[in-house]
Amino acid sequence: MDFGGSKARLASHAIFAEESKHAYAHTCNASQLEALTLACTLRLTLIQGPPGTGKTTTAVQIVAALVQYGLVDLPMLVTADSNTAVDNLVKGIGKRGLSVVRVGRPESIREDVKQYALDGQWKLLKKAEVVCATCIGASGTTLDKIRFATVLIDECTQAAESAALVPMARGCQQAILIGDQCQLPPT
């Protein structure tokens, strides 16, 4: 498996594989830890779980691990089909202390995450470790010049296939898709 070809990246994966068992044991159950470990090492990861099993929390932990262990090229793109789901991700990622920017129409962004909104501050976008948008919002001209090697889509089963492909068209080399096929279908 090629993780960018650099020895530093390979070393980071080896360190992560060893440390993750201990670093996340207090915040993840066994299946969440397995999902976290696989998502950080595979090019395509599909994570499924019924409501209330911590999929969004696991998504946030995956993003934090990928960034903090240097396992991805930055920035990475984190999306969901709905603004509510994206805002939940932004809030969780922000609490982890990562540099996160929320891209989208200001009226669609919840008040409690407005502090992360791009809102015309282009310097924030250039320094971001994580960029969050809806799947369709990822097609906007704001992100035209940015390639995202790693894309995470939460609640992906609620997005139409065509919408889920939009964020991946931004240079995706690693995709993490999280959802529950028994929940609401795409609208």
From TrEMBL:
User: Which molecular function terms from Gene Ontology are attached?
Assistant: helicase activity
The record ties this protein, via SUPFAM superfamilies, to: P-loop containing nucleoside triphosphate hydrolases (SSF52540)
Where in this chain does the record put each DNA2/NAM7 helicase helicase domain? 28-121, 123-187
One Pfam match, given by its short name, reads AAA_11
Q: Which domain of life is it from?
A: Eukaryota
Q: Which PANTHER family match?
A: DNA2/NAM7 HELICASE FAMILY, HELICASE SENATAXIN ISOFORM X1-RELATED
The name on file for this protein is: DNA2/NAM7 helicase helicase domain-containing protein
Source organism of this protein record:
Polarella glacialis
